[in-house]
Design goal:
The chain is an alpha/beta fold and about 250 residues long. The protein has seven helices and seven strands, in the order βαββαβαβαβαααβ. The protein has a seven-stranded parallel beta sheet with strand order 3-2-1-4-5-6-7, sandwiched between helices. Helix 2 (about 55-70) packs parallel to helix 3 (about 95-120) and helix 3 packs parallel to helix 4 (about 145-165). The N and C termini lie far apart (about 55 Å).
C-alpha cells in the first residue's frame, strides 16, 4: 500500500477550511491544519493541527518547522486562510489595510517559499490558493479584501511559471457566495437589503444563476480536484465557483 499523501491547509477551522480538511481526510490524505482559532470538533487523528496566525512571519516559520517535523514532504498546500474588513475605502485605516494584506496575500507568498522545498522533496505536487469572485467583480465596502484576492490571482500565475520546472502546479479557486461565518458577518454592508439575516441570504441567493448560496463542501471538492492528479494539465488558472453569479450581466 502506498504511503498517504500529505496536505497542509490554512484557515482549517473556518467553514471552507474545515470542509476541506474533511474532504482530504476522507480521501485518504494526512492533513496538517493551521488556524489562529481552535478547531471545532475532532481533527483527523492521523493529522496535525497547528494553532498559529499566518499574518505573522514568525508564525509561518514555526508552522513549517512543525510541519517538517511531522513530515519531510508535502504533496499539496491549500492557502485558504483570510480575513475581511467591511468598510468604505475612505474609512479603512492603514492598520486595517495592512492586516488584510498580510493575512490574505503576504501569507501566501511566505507560505510558498517555505512549502517549496517540501513539495520538491515529494517529487512535485500542487498549491491551491483560495481567492474570491471579488478578484474579478466586487461590491461596496470590501476594497482591501478584493485587492488582496486580486493579488492572489497574479501571484498564482507567477508561482505557476516559476514552480513548473519542479513539477509543482499552482491554481486558484474563486468562491462566490458560500454559507460561511465570513459571508454572514459581511451581510451588514447593506448591499442585499432585508431586515433579517435570512432575508438577506435569500436576496443574495436570487442573484446567482443557480438560485442558491453555495455550501463549503462544494468549494472543498473543487480544491481537492485541483490538488490531485485529475487536474494534472492545469496550472496558473483561476477556477470560479459561484453558482453562475459572474455569468450574468449586472444590467440584466
Amino acid at each position: 500500500m502506498s504511503e498517504a499523501r500529505i496536505v497542509l491547509i490554512t484557515g482549517a477551522a473556518g467553514g471552507i477550511g474545515s470542509a476541506t480538511v474533511q474532504k482530504f481526510s476522507q480521501s485518504g490524505w494526512k492533513v496538517i491544519g493551521v488556524d489562529r482559532r481552535p478547531y471545532d470538533g475532532d481533527f483527523p487523528s492521523d493529522g496535525l493541527f497547528i494553532l498559529a496566525d499566518i499574518s505573522k512571519p514568525e508564525d509561518i516559520t514555526a508552522i513549517y518547522d512543525q510541519a517538517g517535523a511531522f513530515s519531510p514532504t508535502l504533496n499539496a498546500v491549500v492557502n485558504n486562510a483570510a480575513v475581511q474588513v467591511s468598510k468604505a475605502i475612505v474609512d479603512t485605516t492603514i492598520e486595517e489595510w495592512d492586516m488584510v494584506m498580510t493575512s490574505n496575500l503576504r501569507s501566501v507568498f511566505l507560505g510558498a517559499k517555505l512549502a517549496h522545498p517540501m513539495l520538491v522533496r515529494a517529487g512535485g505536487g500542487a498549491i491551491v490558493n483560495v481567492s474570491s469572485v471579488h478578484a474579478v467583480a466586487t461590491s461596496v465596502n470590501v476594497a482591501a479584501y478584493a485587492a488582496s484576492k486580486g493579488g492572489i490571482l497574479a501571484l498564482t500565475r507567477a508561482m505557476a511559471i516559476e514552480f513548473a520546472p519542479d513539477n509543482i502546479r499552482v491554481n486558484a479557486v474563486l468562491p462566490g457566495a458560500v454559507d460561511t461565518a465570513m459571508l454572514r458577518d459581511g451581510m451588514d454592508r447593506g448591499q442585499h437589503g432585508g431586515a433579517s439575516m435570512q432575508e438577506r441570504l435569500e436576496n443574495l441567493a436570487r442573484k446567482t444563476v443557480n438560485g442558491r448560496i453555495g455550501q463549503p463542501h462544494e468549494i472543498a471538492s473543487t480544491i481537492y480536484f485541483l490538488a490531485n492528479e485529475t487536474s494534472s494539465f492545469m496550472t496558473g488558472q483561476a477556477l470560479i465557483v459561484d453558482g453562475g453569479a459572474t455569468a450574468r450581466l449586472s444590467t440584466e
